[in-house]
Amino acid sequence: MPNPTMLKFGHPETVVGETDLWSIQIRPKQPGFGSLVLVCKEDASAFGALSPAAFAELGRVVVSLEPALKRLAGYDKINYLMLMMVDPDVHFHVIPRHETPRAFEGVTFVDAGWPGPPALGEGPELDARTIAALRAALTALWTAP
Q: What is the DSSP-derived secondary structure letter of residue 29?
């Protein structure tokens, strides 16, 4: 059953992949091309409350996800932000960072915060068609752990 944070970020339409304990989803607002959210499926509102299994699985997800994002987005850096100020469930915003603009499906992605912190409020808000295309492209590149 999806938790409120998974639903806020468009589950199931935005899901790139899921493991037993994590959901990998396209972030509809894209401060960097290929931005995602990694949402824990456990009932936890604090990082320290996650089970050892969730921590272990998170490591496997990150190791398998970064190469797929690198192939898709050609990022220069990657940021993981755990903000949890609004959305209650443990989750990370995964923001590929790029010095130069990227284009995908007719949408231009400019990293407005480069080289500083990501400008989370900037970047295109993807429509359903572009989310589906981005989801398909990343799903084709990602191998689940």
A: B
**pTM for the full predicted model:** 0.95
Distance CA 124, CA 139 (A): 21
Q: Where are the beta strands (DSSP E) in 1-145?
A: 15-18, 22-26, 36-40, 77-81, 91-97, 102-104, 107-109
The tokens for 73 are 């987005």
Query: Residue 50, Cβ neighbours under 10 Å: how many?
Result: 17
Burial class (CB in 10 A: 0-12, 13-18, 19+), 79: middle
**From CA 104, how far away is CA 111, in angstroms rounded?**
14
Distance CA 101, CA 109 (A): 5
Q: How far apart are the first and last CA of the chain?
A: 21
Q: What is the DSSP letter of 7?
A: H
Convert the pLDDT of each residue in 5-36 to its tens digit. 999 999 999 999 999 999 999 999 999 999 99
